[in-house]
Amino acid sequence: MSGKTKDWWETFFHEFRPFFQKISPKETNAQVRFYLKHLNLKKGMSFLDCPVGIGRIAIPLAKRGINVTGIDLAESYLIELEEKASKRNLPLKLFHSDMRRINFNGEFDTAGNLWTSLGYFEKESDNLLVLKKIYTALKPNGKFVIQVINRDWVLNNFSSSDWTAFGKVKVLEQRIFDYAESKSRATWTFIKEGKETAVDTSIRMYSYHELKKLLEKVGFKNVHGFGSLNDDPISRDTREMFIFGEK
Fold it and tell me: If I label 133, which of 68, 98, 170, 179 is the partner at 20 to 30 A Cα–Cα?
């Protein structure tokens, strides 16, 4: 690994784009129903999707009449998403911004930080700032969900390398776990038509109790979590964590 992970997300997601399609519509729909239930989302309510990515959750919510605002730094994703929303006349507003730079104040009924989108930044204060910005963006009693991979599961199932593929693209992910920083550091090598592109990444991994304390530090109350879409409790055997809080 080169160790050059600063602002890695600015280039990584362009290369990673095809792999979002590996997530089945069935899985996406199950997640949408889960969020609708636990956020008590109704038609006409507002949802801040930060970051919005390719709109995997945003579009289904907008189709149900939820007023979605999406934030992302990947401009190519936003262009693609804008075209989809425009064709379908969906209630979806998009902003090109770093999560740390948003400046909404008491505007949203609900918000989400999904698909392990916290922990990108080298400074923990920046990761905390993302939560503070989202908290400020919510209306009083607004609800928030964060979906992240479970640090305890990662350590229990750690693999130093994996190959995967989608279409003509093959990907090698080589990982180490930095115990001092609780970060998963990886080199992703994308191979397409004989051409290789490598990107180093670094993501802060959180355990349930750490995230619970961070959310409470920001001001969230009634913080609770699930380890699956079936409302199972979080344990070291649950890969994902869905953690909810209220302003």
Answer: 179
Give the residue numbers spanning the domain of 69.
Answer: 9-149+206-246
Mean pLDDT by 10 residues, the chain (247 residues): 59 68 85 98 98 95 98 91 94 96 98 94 94 99 98 97 86 95 93 88 96 98 98 98 99
For residue 4, being part of any structural domain is answered with no
CA–CA gap between residue 103 and residue 220 (Å, rounded): 18
Q: Please name the amino acid found at residue 218.
A: V
Total length of the chain: 247
Half-sphere exposure in the Cβ direction for 67 (13 Å, CA): 6
- Burial grade of 66 (CB within 10 A; 0-12, 13-18, 19 or more): buried
> Do 106 and 222 share a structural domain?
yes
Residue 241: which H helix or E strand, with range? strand 240-246
Q: Residue 18's pLDDT is what? A: 64
pTM of the model: 0.93
- Give dist(CA 220, CA 223) in Å, integer: 7
Are residue 177 and residue 72 in the same domain, yes or no? no
**Rounded to 5 degrees, what are φ and ψ at 157?**
-130, 30
User: What pLDDT, on a 0 to 100 scale, did the predictor assign at position 6?
Assistant: 62
DSSP per residue, 16-78: HGGGGGGS-HHHHHHHHHHHHHHTT--TT-EEEESS-TT-TTHHHHHHTT-EEEEEES-HHHH
**Tokens 């593929």 -> residue:** 165
Question: 80 - beta bridge partners?
Answer: none
